[in-house]
Specification:
heterodimer; A: FAD/NAD(P)-binding domain; 12 helices; disordered N terminus; B: 4-stranded antiparallel sheet; 16 strands
Chain lengths: 418, 239
């Protein structure tokens, strides 16, 4: 793997910045713009960003690909409910970004992105500027707490665990320390990251309560009328397996949270809790708003549904931050990453890519041994100019589906880091 | 001729002397884009060690054997109808001619059982990738006479050189070239996009556990024991 990064290695770049002052990184980087080699910068090392980086290099090893990610390690959100419920260790969910450098020559920069200057085609990080010819933004979600500040306090006390990392670890600790009492889990209105995740989490925590013979009750407070995916499978599992230890409250809006008294106030009454998993509404990462890609008043970035390109040429937004026909999930982000890698490599070679409709496969545990699943395919209706989904749900809970779920995740990880 | 072409050609020439001349020259004449790779000429045998005969291969039963390496699984299927040669065109523009079935009815085919999508493969514990006979359609996709991987629903057509029918796979399953010689059946090479590099990369720890060392898992075989998948695998996961 080359340590050279467009003629200047990272250490030289930082030293140069120190000596010459703030303009130094730009001066240093101006050298790169004289290079003829195309360069792709990817912001965000989740499912979408990692897939794009790997597949770009796999198809075109001579391409300069920079992946900027703040966290030192990748942690998978898919299967993280297994970890929370104590049926999987954390280790299988974690991978080192170094694999992308060593095996594929992706230049991984562990840094915080402060902004994107679309007019100058540079990404501003805490240690300098990185220019690009093609930009792929895959920064994921932020919690949408602006209009409801009570969620902001709650995040600290009641980790949502919808951003991989410390939130999961803290929530897991709360669950492990729980000896009995009341648990509140809330579901926001869609769209949010991974539609079945809250429903799966409720089922797995209920399953854990039964497994550990805890004297406890779950109040599962859903903003929706019913589970928004695999409703039949989830409802039958709740009824058959957990009706004595869980209450499912539907169409309920969270109005306030008192983190000190441990009360969630909703349109359907107040619920006291000993531990809570409050999942706030979500929106695209704030970074996209600051870059001017996410317009004021919008929560998600509108993209061309076939290419995931924004209104700015050669700037793509993939993963949960984009508003596409696909649901917000790691699997979708992975598929979008592959697609965008193909498009960029084709453009560099002056070729076009045939339009493809992506598919979705989604599994959910409903107990510690059984799972249900959904497969969704899409067709584009040229009259309404919309994608029409066809869902094939398997709502009969089975142990074999749980094994398929495990293989589904392992396959993704093999593709990301194998 | 670059180094890779040279090596492939050397392998091909070395094998040519061991193969039926007509079979080999016809096959080679129909190939371009270097999609054919030869390995050991390995005889297929039954579990008792005697050579497998055409009559032993029951129609629409999914059989497993390991070729070209000790750890790389393949499926052998008698599709009970003549399977004609097919021109396979890949998305990257490359192509190859898949020679069709062998045997008196030209109905016997073999493919690598490593899913070309994300390398799921049959282990002794589970197989997520399986053949669905015409009378046993998939519950999920409702399709029959296919090879389907239940992890991400990649679907392949065994009658058409394991072309991708539906799902996320980008390329067909690699084909195992079979040759019949005096009533015995041999595996002689692999045609199409091999997944062996990714397979050995992805399953290093698993293979070490099963075979002792990865070197043993990578040993090229000269004899392949054929058995029914349902007997080899503890839980055949169909969906």
């Amino acid at each position: 793997m080359s340590k050279q990064w467009s003629g200047v290695n990272r250490r030289d770049l930082l030293v140069g910045a120190g000596i010459l002052g703030i303009s130094a990184p730009l001066l240093a980087y101006s050298k790169t713009q004289t290079r003829q080699k195309a360069q792709v910068v990817i912001v965000g090392g989740g499912y979408g960003g990692v897939t794009t980086a790997k597949h770009l290099k796999k198809e075109n090893p001579s391409l300069d690909v920079v992946l900027i990610e703040e966290r030192p390690f990748f942690m998978s959100c898919p299967m993280s409910n297994h970890f929370l419920a104590g049926i999987m260790e954390l280790t299988p969910l974690c991978f080192s970004y170094n694999i992308l450098e060593v095996k594929y020559g992706v230049r991984v920069v562990q840094d915080k992105v402060l902004g994107v200057e679309l007019d100058r085609k540079v990404v501003r990080t805490s240690s300098g500027y990185i220019a690009y010819d093609y930009l792929v933004l895959s920064p994921g979600i932020d919690y949408d707490v602006k209009d409801k500040p009570f969620y902001r306090d709650s995040i600290v006390y009641n980790p949502p665990a919808f951003k991989p990392g410390s939130e999961h670890i803290y929530l897991k600790r709360l669950i492990e320390e729980f000896e009995g009492g009341d648990i509140v889990i809330t579901v926001p209105p869609p769209p949010y990251r991974c539609p079945p995740a809250p429903y799966e989490r409720a089922a797995l925590i209920a399953s854990m309560i039964k497994r550990n013979n805890l004297k406890a009750h779950i109040y599962f407070i859903d903003a929706n009328e019913r589970p928004i995916i695999n409703a039949e499978g989830f409802l039958s599992a709740y009824y058959d397996l957990y009706k004595d230890i869980a209450t499912y409250v539907t169409s309920a809006q969270v109005r306030d949270i008192d983190v000190h008294k441990k009360v969630v106030k909703t349109s359907h009454g107040d619920f006291k809790y000993d531990i809570a998993n409050i999942i706030p509404p979500m929106k695209a990462s704030n970074l996209l708003q600051e870059a001017g890609i996410l317009k004021r008043g919008q929560k998600w970035v509108e993209v061309n549904p076939f290419t995931f390109e924004t209104s700015v040429k050669n700037v793509f937004v993939i993963g949960d931050a984009s508003q596409s026909y696909l649901p917000k999930s790691g699997y979708a982000a992975h598929s979008e990453g592959k697609m965008v890698a193909k498009i960029i490599n084709a453009r560099i070679q002056g070729k076009e890519v045939k339009e493809e409709y992506l598919q979705m496969i989604c599994y959910s545990m409903v107990s510690d041994k059984e799972a249900i699943m959904t497969e969704t395919s899409f067709k584009y209706d040229t009259v309404s100019k919309r994608f029409i989904p066809t869902h094939r749900e398997d709502n009969i809970r089975k142990e074999t589906t749980a094994k398929r779920y495990e293989e589904w995740a392992k396959g993704l990880w093999r593709d990301l880091f194998g | 001729m670059d180094r890779r072409d040279f090596i492939i050609t050397c392998g091909t020439v070395a094998l040519a002397s061991m193969l039926d001349a007509n079979f080999y020259s016809n096959l080679l004449a129909n190939q371009k884009d270097n999609m054919l790779k030869t390995y050991n000429k390995a005889i297929l045998v039954k579990e008792d060690g005697t050579p497998l005969k055409e009559a032993d291969i029951k129609p629409h039963v999914n059989y497993i054997f390991f070729y070209p390496y000790a750890a790389t699984p393949c499926y052998l299927i008698n599709l009970d109808q003549e399977i004609k040669p097919v021109e396979i065109k890949l998305k990257d523009g490359k192509s190859y001619t898949w020679p069709g079935g062998i045997g008196s009815k030209k109905s016997i085919v073999a493919y690598s059982a490593i899913c070309a999508h994300q390398w799921s493969y049959p282990t002794k514990e589970y197989s997520f990738i399986n053949y669905y006979p015409p009378d046993t359609p998939s519950e999920t996709t409702k399709k029959a006479g296919i090879i389907q991987c239940c992890a991400h629903l990649a679907l392949y057509d065994p009658k058409e050189g394991a072309k991708v029918i539906d799902g996320p796979a980008e390329v067909p399953l690699a084909s195992i070239l079979l040759q019949e010689e005096e009533g015995n059946i041999y595996a002689v090479g692999v045609l199409g996009v091999e997944q062996f590099t990714q397979f050995f990369d992805s399953y290093r720890a698993e293979l070490r556990q099963r075979y002792g060392t990865t070197a043993k898992a990578r040993e090229l075989v000269e004899k392949c024991t054929v058995m029914e998948v349902d007997k080899y695998v503890q839980a055949v996961v169909r969906c």
